[in-house]
TrEMBL record:
Record has Isomerase as a keyword: yes
Protein known as: Sugar phosphate isomerase/epimerase
GO molecular function: isomerase activity
Domain Xylose isomerase-like TIM barrel: 21-269
Length: 282
């Protein structure tokens, strides 16, 4: 299995300890928020070659590969998808800078979350919101394809303050609406829990398979993940039985004891793999 962790699980100051935990556990993938991965850069989306090498060297030493990027609108103000031409232009420009960084670093996946920046206003119909967003993301898909990456649309539960693509099935339908090879689905397990859909995970995974580009092993509100090895095992089995063979990336926020909680989450995912009958990393 391809196992990764997002670096939002630890502060930049704990990077080396986190990498050591992942190396010992046999994890080989790293998902990054640029603001954390390139914390020492004057501009994490436009780092110098020296700043890039400073970030990449310890990652490579730990046997890790960059597999995904999130927090794509970091540091950008006034960027929204549905509040007029100027805010939308700011969002597009921010996405283009993220696509450029992904191309530069060879990152094959970009997770678009940003729940509050994509809520559509009262008075706009869901259909109009989907139509406008599909036009934007089809054009961004062209940019991503040229850069050698893909944009993975992430479902975000209503509790995160958005009304756009709340459920995994909503995000899947949107990806099909965009119909672009560089616009895919981020299959977010936390969203299934938040929207009450986890009990249907087998059917949802089978239906969405051809759209899935990335999987987040997550919990509501980015609590340490996975919380329950048995539930995680069910999710792994559902996705593998459907035919998914890509990355499973733990997505959790840093806690007050980040390395302890990271190690515990890694151990729970390893236990889930055993329960699911999957092969543990070598």
């Amino acid at each position: 299995m391809k196992l990764a962790v997002s670096n939002i699980a630890w502060p930049a100051s704990e990077r080396d300890g986190a990498y050591a935990i992942l190396a010992r556990a046999g994890f080989t993938g790293l998902e990054i928020a640029p603001g954390l991965f390139l914390a020492g850069a004057a501009d994490p989306f436009a780092p110098t070659d020296a700043e890039v090498e400073h970030a990449l060297a310890p990652m490579r030493d730990a046997g890790l590969t960059l597999v995904s990027m999130q927090s794509l609108l970091f540091g950008v103000s006034g960027a929204t998808l549905f509040e007029g031409e100027e805010p939308r232009a700011r969002l597009v420009a921010a996405m283009e800078r993220a696509i450029g960084l992904a191309g530069r670093l060879g990152i094959p996946n970009l997770v678009f979350g940003s729940p509050r920046q994509r809520a559509y206003p009262d008075g706009m119909s869901e259909q109009d919101a989907h139509d406008q967003a599909a036009e934007v993301f089809h054009a961004l898909g062209d940019r991503a394809l040229a850069a050698g990456t893909r944009i993975a649309m992430e479902p975000n539960g209503r509790a995160y303050g958005t009304n756009f693509l709340n459920r995994v099935e909503d995000a899947e339908a949107f990806v099909r609406r965009v119909d672009h090879p560089a616009v895919v689905l981020n299959f977010d397990i936390g969203a299934l829990h938040m929207e009450g859909d986890f009990d249907r995970i087998e059917a949802i995974a089978a239906q969405a398979l051809d759209t899935i580009g990335h999987v987040h092993v997550s919990e509501p509100h980015l609590a340490p993940a996975p919380a329950d090895p048995a539930q995680a095992a069910r999710a792994i089995r559902a996705l593998q039985d459907a035919g998914y063979a890509g990355w499973f990336s733990i997505e959790m926020a840093a806690t007050s004891t980040p390395l302890d909680d990271l190690a515990a989450s890694v151990a729970r995912l390893q236990a889930a793999l055993t329960l699911a009958g999957g092969a543990l990393p070598a």
